[in-house]
């Protein structure tokens, strides 16, 4: 991975950064295969919203399915990806002094007609998620397939539309409202959050 110095600058100025052709093609394909195998094994679950006890099914807000990735149980493709996230934490700690300590990550599949309505990734109580990262695993994605990630601006208006193109990596500040438009084809991704130590409440 080439870690652009632009990444830290962009997070500070626009709040997001996009890297196309993020990984070597072999790593990209291995991750896509790992996601498909996991899905075929029936290991994905409907995604929930909220945290711990408050976790709720809410298919009116999001209808994707997810599989949480585990540092110790993952395939080598997954472990290599998680190692990239570690590197990113280090880079951001060095350049922006963010104090990132950890991350959580999951595979996600949006089947046709699935979506995730406007939301923020930070939970009101802990706010430990600082940087949201999405890596797309879609071969030959086309505009007509929908499924764009939309980032909202400071006036809460839709601002930036990002297509979920294969091998594209996007990161943004986790307090930015965003949504996933309805996808009309199966849409694959890995979502991750780089986290600081949670606030004690
Ligand atoms: C999320 C999310 C964006 C995307 O999982 O919280 O906003 O483009 N994902 O998949
Ligand atoms: Ni989100």
Helices and strands, with pairings:
Elements: H1 5-13, E1 16-19, H2 25-40, E2 45-46, E3 65-68, H3 76-96, E4 102-110, E5 116-119, E6 129-136, E7 149-152, E8 158-162, E9 169-173, E10 178-180, E11 187-195
Antiparallel strand pairs: 1-9, 2-3, 3-4, 4-11, 5-10, 6-9, 6-11, 7-8, 7-10
Helix pairs in contact: 2-3
Bound molecules: N-oxalylglycine and nickel (II) ion (NI).
Nickel (II) ion (NI) binds at residues 119, 121, 132, 178.
Describe this structure in words.
- With 201 residues, the protein is α+β, with helices and mostly antiparallel strands.
- It has one domain: q2cbj1_9rhob like domain (Jelly Rolls, Sandwich), CATH 2.60.120.620.
- Helices cover 23% and strands 28% of the residues.
- It contains three helices and eleven strands.
- The strands form two sheets. Strands 1-9-6-11-4-3-2 form a seven-stranded antiparallel sheet, covered by helices on one side.
- Helix 2 (25-40) crosses helix 3.
- The mean pLDDT is 92.
C-alpha geometry? globular
CATH topology: Jelly Rolls
The CATH top-level class label:
Mainly Beta
The CATH architecture designation is Sandwich
Number of strands: 11
Number of helices: 3
**Structurally, how many domains make up the residues?**
1
| Ligand kinds | N-oxalylglycine, nickel (II) ion
Assigned CATH superfamily: q2cbj1_9rhob like domain
Fraction in beta strands:
25-35%
Structural class: alpha+beta
Q: Nearest-angstrom radius of gyration?
A: 16 Å
* Strand order within the widest beta sheet: 1-9-6-11-4-3-2
Low-pLDDT segments, ≥5 res:
none
Q: Indicate the mean pLDDT.
A: 92
In angstroms, what separates the terminal alpha carbons?
37 Å
Largest sheet: 7 strands, antiparallel
């Amino acid at each position: 991975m080439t870690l652009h110095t632009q990444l830290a600058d962009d997070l500070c100025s626009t709040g997001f950064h996009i890297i196309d052709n993020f990984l070597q093609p072999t790593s990209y394909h291995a991750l896509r295969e790992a996601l498909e195998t996991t899905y075929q094994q029936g290991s994905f679950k409907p995604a929930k919203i909220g945290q711990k006890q408050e976790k709720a099914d809410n298919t009116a807000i999001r209808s994707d399915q997810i599989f949480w990735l585990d540092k110790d149980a993952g395939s080598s493709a997954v472990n290599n990806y998680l190692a990239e996230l570690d590197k990113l934490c280090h880079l951001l700690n060095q350049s922006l002094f963010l104090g990132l300590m950890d991350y959580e990550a999951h595979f996600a599949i949006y089947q046709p007609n699935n979506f995730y309505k406007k939301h923020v990734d930070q939970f009101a109580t802990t706010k430990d998620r600082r940087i949201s990262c999405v890596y797309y695993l879609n071969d030959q994605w086309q505009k007509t397939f929908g499924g764009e990630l939309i980032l909202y601006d400071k006036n809460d208006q839709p601002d930036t539309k990002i297509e979920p193109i294969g091998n594209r990596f996007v990161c943004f500040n986790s307090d930015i409202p965003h949504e996933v438009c309805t996808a009309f084809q199966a849409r694959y991704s890995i979502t991750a959050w780089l986290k600081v130590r949670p606030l004690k409440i």
